Automatic annotation (TrEMBL):
This is Pyrroline-5-carboxylate reductase. It comes from Methylovorus glucosotrophus (strain SIP3-4). HAMAP family: P5C_reductase. The gene is proC. One of its GO terms (cellular component) is cytoplasm. Its EC number is 1.5.1.2. Catalyzes the reduction of 1-pyrroline-5-carboxylate (PCA) to L-proline. It catalyses: L-proline + NADP(+) = (S)-1-pyrroline-5-carboxylate + NADPH + 2 H(+); L-proline + NAD(+) = (S)-1-pyrroline-5-carboxylate + NADH + 2 H(+). NADP(+) binds at I7, G8, G9, G10, N11, M12, A67, V68, K69, P70. PROSITE patterns: P5CR. One of its GO terms (biological process) is L-proline biosynthetic process. Belongs to the pyrroline-5-carboxylate reductase family.
Length: 270
């Protein structure tokens, strides 16, 4: 079994480990390097993974997943470079370009950049992957297998597309949760119980998403099928259009993509 070492045991590392566990991955093949003792203890208790604060332990791993914040990556990578021999390095840090990471690692090129998302923890994630040219086909296969344990995978032909991916699927779960929060708040305001608010909003999301995925119709057509002339949906959509909801969502995704590029520009300069 490929030995995986996560550096950083925060939200996204947990989500990926959860996905690997659900997929039957041997938890004793996974170790997590994390400075916070409470997080280490929690990760060990919940998943049975090895935990340590000792960076040199990465030497025994086949794959190293860099799961620290983008702002923490450079200092870590400069230290990590001397510990690498033939491991595959997977970076999930938003914005950070592979060539900047390679430079911080002292020229190490076996790098796959990945943008996962948190539904990984129930194997419903999607990850976009991009490999530097030096990454072998076998290493790409390993990266793909690991990320498939957390959901679907898509390979990018140009790293530049990572900013867009980050804005859509990386940050995207937060947009959906935001919408669900609003639906649940409205349900409560309209007099439904918390339990019904939760059930009705979540099943509506799940059902509409499944229909959009399975149907050959566009989302616009499916939306029109809900919208009876002179009816309730029409009134709701008019209210959304007046408030500029669609434009706000599009604008938000552009803002996220711009922030990804900005992180790459700012942090990559160092
Ligand atoms: N959350 C998400 O939905 C997604 C996140 N990502 C990317 O994943 C990365 C991690 O994000 P997320 O999990 O949300 O962040 P978190 O802050 O939750 O996790 C990062 C963890 O790494 C720890 N850490 C910091 N420095 C080191 C170090 N030198 N060695 C080991 N551990 C260290 C942090 O400790 P401390 O808090 O003490 O600094 C923290 O516990 C980011 O780069 C982000 O861009 C990508 C896709 C989606
Ligand atoms: O918010 C962030 O920066 C990270 C990257 C994508 C999702 N979370």
């Amino acid at each position: 079994m490929t030995k995986i070492s996560f550096i950083g045991g925060g939200n996204m590392a947990r989500a990926l480990i959860g996905g690997l566990q659900s997929n039957g991955y041997a938890m004793d093949a996974i170790s997590v390097i994390e400075p916070d003792a409470d997080k280490r203890q929690q990760l060990h208790a919940e998943y049975g993974v090895h935990v340590t604060e000792q960076l040199p332990s990465v030497s025994s791993a086949d794959v190293i997943v860099l799961a620290v914040k983008p702002q923490q990556l450079r200092d870590l990578a400069i230290f990590l470079g001397s510990l690498l021999h033939e491991q595959l390095v997977i970076s999930i840090a938003a914005g950070i370009r592979s060539q900047d990471l390679a430079r911080w690692l002292g020229g190490y090129q076996a790098i796959v950049r990945v943008m996962p998302n948190t539904p990984a923890q129930i194997q419903a994630g999607i990850s976009a992957l991009y490999a530097l040219p030096a990454v072998s086909a076998a290493q790409k296969e390993i990266a793909d297998t690991i990320m498939q344990a957390a959901g679907k995978t898509v390979w990018l032909d140009a790293e530049q597309k990572m900013d867009a991916v980050t804005a859509i699927s990386g940050s995207g779960p937060a947009y959906v949760f935001y919408f669900i929060e609003a639906m649940q708040q409205a349900a409560l305001e309209l007099g439904l119980s918390a339990e019904d608010a939760r059930l009705l909003s979540l099943q509506t999301f799940a059902g509409a998403t499944a229909l959009a995925a399975q149907s050959s119709e566009t989302p616009a057509t499916l939306r029109a099928q809900v919208t009876s002339k002179g009816g309730t949906t029409e009134r709701a959509l008019l209210s959304m259009d007046t408030a500029g909801v669609k434009n706000a969502i599009i604008h938000a995704a552009h803002a996220a993509a711009a922030r990804s590029a900005e992180l790459g520009d700012q942090l990559g300069k160092e």
